[in-house]
Design brief:
InterPro entries: Homeodomain-like_sf, HTH_RpiR, RpiR-like, RpiR-like_SIS, SIS_dom, SIS_dom_sf, WH-like_DNA-bd_sf
CATH superfamily of the largest domain: Glucose-6-phosphate isomerase like protein, domain 1
Organism: Paenibacillus larvae
Low-confidence stretches: none
Mean pLDDT: 85
Structural class: alpha/beta
GO biological process, one term: carbohydrate derivative metabolic process
Keywords: DNA-binding, Transcription, Transcription regulation
Helix content: 40-55%
GO molecular function: carbohydrate derivative binding; DNA binding; DNA-binding transcription factor activity
CATH class of the largest domain: Alpha Beta
CATH architecture of the largest domain: 3-Layer(aba) Sandwich
Distance between the termini: 26 Å
Radius of gyration: 19 Å
Number of domains: 2
Number of helices: 13
CATH topology of the largest domain: Rossmann fold
Number of strands: 5
Strand content: 5-15%
Shape: globular
Oligomer: single chain
């Protein structure tokens, strides 16, 4: 399995123990350090047993913690091979690194099986509905327009009341695509619950596999979001991981469409 890290199916995530979920969250938040941490050090810092670490690694598709570390280290050389010029201000270099990290880690975390499932659901759907709120709306709009340009019947909604109403009217031939950074937007979660009851396929682009939206969705594609924000007093965190996910999804869809 290639770099599945957090691209585990929602049903698999549901089967994780509390300690395994805690460990997964710790790894996610400290991903850049993982290649340097021994299993004993990780056990100590995350406050879990080494047995828990090994169990989680196997559920992520690795033979053990060593192969996980190797995968992380093997795929991080791109960042080291392109040093940022020393003449750039330290804080600006930090900002560049933050964005570079989000892009590279998001690509590393992509699970092609989840991506393929999403492509197939979009391809066979009679109509695609894109739901997004806040700054994620820009990504939702781009997804909608490009799918329309490819001949797909697609529409986007960002109004909470309209989202709630439409969520009660969709049919099984439709597919829903959510774009949500944290996966906890109330009206999106409520809509996804309705779709789950009606067995309407749902796809979510997010940065949190443990979110309510991710747990409810049929297909979850996860990106990496750094903890640092340069606008801490506002809820305007970077949507760069979601941009990357949407770009890959659209490119892959075009490739499959041309093959058909």
């Amino acid at each position: 399995m290639q770099n599945p890290i957090f691209q585990i199916p929602p049903e698999t995530y549901q089967q994780l123990s509390d300690s395994e979920r805690h460990l997964l969250d710790f790894i996610y938040k400290n991903l850049p350090r993982m290649s340097e941490l021994s299993i004993l050090k990780l056990s100590e810092e995350a406050s879990v047993s080494t047995a828990t670490i090994v169990r989680l690694m196997k559920k992520l598709g690795f033979d053990g913690y060593t192969s996980f570390k190797y995968s992380i280290k093997n795929n991080s050389h791109a960042m080291e091979d392109e040093p940022i010029k020393a003449s750039v201000d330290t804080q600006i270099r930090e900002a560049i690194r933050k964005n570079e990290l989000e892009v590279i880690q998001t690509i590393q975390m992509l699970d092609t099986r989840q991506l393929e499932k999403a492509i197939q659901e979009i391809y066979k759907a009679s109509k695609v509905y894109v739901f997004a709120r806040g700054f994620s709306e820009f990504i939702g709009t781009e997804l909608t327009v490009k799918l329309q340009l490819m001949g797909k019947n697609c529409e986007m909604h960002n109004d909470p009341n309209i989202i709630r109403v439409i969520s009660r009217k969709l049919v099984k031939d439709d597919v829903v695509l959510f774009v949500s950074l944290n996966g906890e937007t109330g009206e999106l979660v409520e809509a996804c619950k309705n779709f789950k009851i009606k067995e309407i396929p749902t796809i979510t682009l997010t940065t949190r596999i443990d979110s309510s939206l991710a747990r409810l969705s049929d297909i979850v594609i996860v990106g990496y979001k750094g903890e640092q924000s340069f606008f801490p007093e506002y809820e305007v965190r970077s949507r760069l991981p979601l941009h990357v996910l949407s770009r890959v999804l659209l490119d892959a869809y075009v490739i499959r469409l041309n093959n058909h």
